[in-house]
Amino acid sequence: MATTLPSVDVVTVGVGWTGGIVAAECSKAGLKVVGLERGQKRGTEDFLSIHDEYRYAIRYDLMQNLSKETVTFRNNRKMQALPMRQLGSFLLGEGLGGAGTHWNGMTFRFLPYDFQIKTMTDERYGANKLGPDYLLQDWALNYDQLEPYFDKFEKTLGISGDDKNPFAGKRSSAYPTPPMKMTPMLQQFEKATKNLKLSPYMVPSANISEVYKNPDGETINACQYCGFCERFGCEYGAKSSAEITVVPTALKTGNFDLRFNSNVVEILKQGNKATGVRYIDTVSGEEFIQPANIVVLTSYVFNNAKLLMVSNIGQPYDPTTGKGTLGRNYCYQILPGASGFFDEQYNTFMGAGSLGMSIDDYNGDNFDHSELDFIHGGNIALTQTGTRPISSNPTPPDTPTWGPEFKKQSIHYYTRSFGIGAQGASMPHKENYLSLDSNYKDAYGLPLIQLTYNFTDQDRALHKFISARAADIMKEMGAKTIVPNAEITDYNIVPYQTTHNTGGTVMSSTPDKGVVNNYLQHWDIENLFAISAGSFAHNSGYNPTGTLGALAYRCAEGVVKYSKSGGALV
Amino acid sequence: MSADNNVSRRDFLKTTGIAAGTLVGGGLIGGLVGYNINGKGTATIEHGNGTTSEAAGSPKAKMFFMNERDFKILSNATERIFPKDDLGPGAIDLDVPYFIDHQLAGQYGSNSKEYMQGPFGEGSPTQGYQSRLTRAEIFKQGIAKMETEAQSRFKKSFNDLEGKQMDEILTAFQKGDIQMSGVTSAFFFALLRAATLEGAYSDPLYGGNRNMEGWRMKGFPGHQMAYITMIEDPKFQKIEPNQLGNH
């Protein structure tokens, strides 16, 4: 039935940031690589009509077609999981570049604390600060070990930033390009946070400040501040993404065979080795087997976990016994913050995806948690990403949601309000995990992945504390009306929150705590690698892509190393 | 979100049908006459019934709704949600009803990029949309229910109601007080409200946001190539909007 193709050195499942990085590094090293992308080809030339809020931001034209595949969701094990029928809480990618095509481009490094969170938290606050239900664990690498890979990722992208964050881990070199432009809104934030004795710095940005040629010879153009990044592709080639950097780098070697409309449905194995993957050509419906010496899972969090589950690789996590690692430590992020309403008018519609100023004074363990009932925190930022008129209808409290007063207020405040938002870190909890759904299937007959997730007491306490800090800054900025974000109760999959899903295929120091080792190599199957934000043991108070990119370079190094030496790399 | 809507306390449009169809006032900003989608000058014709149409090269024809009554119910409802005022046109003058009609006839109406396989369970609100109905089906049912509700409350067609009476019915939908099949009335109202704003503020290529008046009211310049030369300027920038069709 399935046609078996000639064998190759490496096959990647998905071609976004992680697949692109693995493809570029392996093909440069002389390995023959096949990249299987379930979506279509796309790139800068396809984005000339991108300034279309309705098509791209409201109807999600660049994102996953849920009629083919989605996830099911429930808040807890007592509930019946039901399919996420429409996109909402997070926006899954599809097509070349993946979600990295429609990202904002904020490219932080997680804090040194993040990588040793268990050890450092226990040292400072004693064991069990959070209690036994939280599956806090150190990552399999510390910050210093990961630093060269952060550096490499930032140089590939040409990240624009300053070095003014006193809480950042040590850098081996400066940001490749200078920070983005300073706008009146950002200046106001800078002044207010300095008045409050906080330490503002420019958000590290992949919408870059000047034309840049990366070490692979790819050129990224200068950002024009058009205000259409998030949920859009860049018509200038000024937002670093896989399709303008690592993918062309891989293709230039002649060693990279990139196939579109190729949906992988199974990792094939014999004994304790992977032998390749089975995939469906979604156009012709034909089935293929792509044999490979090394299989690398480079799709999003959910699909990496799902492919391992449907291929019966690894032991699924069981929340009753605490046994099993696959699906464990699913984390998300929470979004504390405050909205401010002003008399002055701002150019809120101008911007760039990662144009912003932020502080880390309330992130990680940069402040004392002795008297607090939570750990970690979040990066608090004022970003000017370009507000758009359909989705931005800000009104002061007690304004009706429709009718004359709504119209008047939402138009008035469209250019007279903005938010200060934080990305609240998310700690793993024993009841938050991924598994396979037993009722719902995708277009290829495979079970959907099931998400069991709710906010925790840690989340609620963090959210309340950080929202109050955001409100303090807003007050110092002189807002006329300040509205802290409402306290969180249960996680709701409907409103958009963030596409920063993590965990499920965690990287760990020992096989009992995760799915892959510190080269992202599978603990049970040595020629199988899995890299996504699923590798994160918890989620920090930052955008994840910087850390994800660093891990992808680490993974690529592991794949090349394995192709020469074989065996377990750790 | 405020569950209660105080629009019913404001008798904004005295006679909705007439006021909504009148171009005086709203036309002061930008002007509606002369709007054209194909480069040819076209004239606006008022029907005096809350709708207008173009004489030539017009996008104003229905792809989804089959009769005038239903289309007018939709039109009046969107106008109550986003009314004409001294800032500029309301939903009707922005062609929002045509935008919604066109959307319902396509991918949006058939939910073709969404997971629509059963089994269908009611679920908890945190699990989101779980209806077997498409948006097209929900709108059809919702509009019919608005008419039924008008008849049972006021013994009149929805289209003959006073603005305040329309608001009373819309508020009942918003609160989930109206019995619908396969979906709550609150969900239908949320969909109607969202579609109204989408029609007011999407690029005119979709048939709403007529002559970019929605953007002009809001101070959104639409499709602009770059703000790099002005983003550092402390002054607010008033920029004449541009649409994708002028690319």
UniProtKB/TrEMBL annotation, chain A:
<comment type="similarity">
    <text>Belongs to the GMC oxidoreductase family.</text>
</comment>
<dbReference type="GO" id="GO:0016614">
    <property type="term" value="F:oxidoreductase activity, acting on CH-OH group of donors"/>
</dbReference>
<keyword id="KW-0285">Flavoprotein</keyword>
<dbReference type="InterPro" id="IPR036188">
    <property type="entry name" value="FAD/NAD-bd_sf"/>
</dbReference>
<keyword id="KW-0560">Oxidoreductase</keyword>
<dbReference type="InterPro" id="IPR000172">
    <property type="entry name" value="GMC_OxRdtase_N"/>
</dbReference>
<dbReference type="Pfam" id="PF05199">
    <property type="entry name" value="GMC_oxred_C"/>
</dbReference>
<dbReference type="Pfam" id="PF00732">
    <property type="entry name" value="GMC_oxred_N"/>
</dbReference>
<keyword id="KW-0274">FAD</keyword>
<dbReference type="InterPro" id="IPR007867">
    <property type="entry name" value="GMC_OxRtase_C"/>
</dbReference>
<feature type="domain" description="Glucose-methanol-choline oxidoreductase C-terminal">
    <location>
        <begin position="428"/>
        <end position="552"/>
    </location>
</feature>
<dbReference type="GO" id="GO:0050660">
    <property type="term" value="F:flavin adenine dinucleotide binding"/>
</dbReference>
<feature type="domain" description="Glucose-methanol-choline oxidoreductase N-terminal">
    <location>
        <begin position="220"/>
        <end position="324"/>
    </location>
</feature>
<protein>
    <submittedName>
        <fullName>GMC family oxidoreductase</fullName>
    </submittedName>
</protein>
Automatic annotation (TrEMBL), chain B:
<dbReference type="InterPro" id="IPR019546">
    <property type="entry name" value="TAT_signal_bac_arc"/>
</dbReference>
<protein>
    <submittedName>
        <fullName>Gluconate 2-dehydrogenase subunit 3 family protein</fullName>
    </submittedName>
</protein>
<keyword id="KW-0812">Transmembrane</keyword>
<dbReference type="InterPro" id="IPR006311">
    <property type="entry name" value="TAT_signal"/>
</dbReference>
<dbReference type="InterPro" id="IPR027056">
    <property type="entry name" value="Gluconate_2DH_su3"/>
</dbReference>
<keyword id="KW-0472">Membrane</keyword>
<feature type="transmembrane region" description="Helical">
    <location>
        <begin position="12"/>
        <end position="35"/>
    </location>
</feature>
<dbReference type="Pfam" id="PF13618">
    <property type="entry name" value="Gluconate_2-dh3"/>
</dbReference>
<keyword id="KW-1133">Transmembrane helix</keyword>
